[in-house]
Design brief:
This protein is α/β, with parallel strands linked by helices. It is built from 15 helices and 10 strands. It has one domain. The strands form 3 sheets. A 6-stranded mixed β-sheet has the order 7-4-9-2-1-10, with helices on both faces. Strands 3-6 form a two-stranded antiparallel ribbon. Strands 5-8 form a two-stranded parallel ribbon. Strand 1 and strand 2 form a beta hairpin.
């Protein structure tokens, strides 16, 4: 699920991509289909192909964000966009201008009357180290609840890692517009109900676990994220899916998020299946882990009788 581009409290969806949980949470993408985890033969990131007698959809597996300035070979993308009847993008969550006052109120609910070091005393030494690591004042994050602090630390950490949450989607859409290929999301959801549920109904344990995971991620540094991004750009599928997956685990601990992620998966599969009714070829852009997961997008499409070709097979 991609809910990257919103403001204020919607940052909850974008600022916890690196927050890990210390407990075991149901993770439907934990197991991958090994037959689908194949490195690309063509230059650039890995592509899968879904086809039947008269339709082909080229599916690019992506990461949630890329380091700013990371170059990647777009030649295969550009070739496949030529003549495509559609660009199918991940589901999106949207909020309107009228939602801004509610978002501001929700943001306030992530603050706490109890100083953070007192709310999570066992994490106080780690909080002090992370503040120093991020160049923040000793009282930074003190006014926030554990979940709110995790969000704020996530924002500051994202700045230090120079990750761009708009990529690679932005580049793909720009190249599609240049070729007059219409882009459409696999689903459109109202963001406010999701955000309200997360902010108002999350448990104290879930908030604390997300904060603890965020601290662990900052302490560990950016090496794993950078390595996964480089692997992705080189078509190294196993390397790309080996990067941090903490966003999914954290969000699945939040109210309603497990159901939302299942809805997103269903919408992605249905969008591709519907596109297969149109002769010709199209391009799709979905999470690389979600593509190759057991009972994931490609696994389900194979079960429906479509042919799935891996990045290592003869390119078409």
């Amino acid at each position: 699920m991609t809910l990257k581009h919103a403001a204020l409290a919607l940052g909850l969806m974008a600022l916890l991509p690196t927050a890990a949980l210390a407990q075991v949470i149901d993770d439907p993408e934990a197991t991958v289909v090994e037959a689908l985890v194949v490195n690309a033969r063509l230059p650039g990131p890995a592509w899968w192909k879904v086809s039947d007698a008269d339709t082909t959809i080229y599916v690019l597996g992506t990461l949630a964000s890329l380091p700013k300035g990371l170059g990647w070979d777009t030649s295969v993308l550009e070739r496949r966009l030529d003549g495509a009847f559609a660009l199918i993008m991940p589901p999106v969550g949207r909020a309107g201008l009228t939602d801004i006052p509610a978002l501001l109120r929700l943001r306030g609910k992530l603050k706490s009357d109890v100083p953070l070091d007192q709310a999570a005393p066992e994490l106080a030494p780690r909080l002090a180290r992370v503040r120093t690591q991020l160049g923040k004042a000793p009282d930074s994050y003190s006014e926030w609840s554990p979940l709110g602090a995790g969000m704020m630390i996530g924002l500051d950490y994202q700045k230090t890692t120079r990750l761009d949450g708009g990529e690679p989607d932005r580049t793909v859409e720009r190249l599609a517009r240049k070729r007059k290929v219409k882009s459409r999301p696999a689903g459109v959801y109202k963001a406010m109900p999701m955000v309200k549920a997360v902010v108002r109904e999350h448990s104290a344990e879930a908030g604390r676990l997300c904060l603890e995971g965020m601290l662990s991620e900052v302490e560990a540094g950016t090496a794993a994220t950078q390595a996964a991004a480089r692997a992705w750009a080189e078509g190294n599928v196993r390397g790309a899916i080996a990067g941090p997956r903490n966003f999914q685990r954290c969000m699945r601990a939040m109210p309603g998020m497990a159901d939302m992620q299942q809805r997103s998966l269903n919408d992605e599969v249905n969008a591709l299946a519907e596109a297969m009714k149109t002769p010709g070829h199209a391009v799709a852009l979905f999470s690389i882990r979600g593509l190759v997961a057991e009972d994931g997008v490609l696994d389900r499409l194979r079960a429906r009788g479509f042919k799935v070709t891996t990045p290592g097979d003869t390119p078409g």
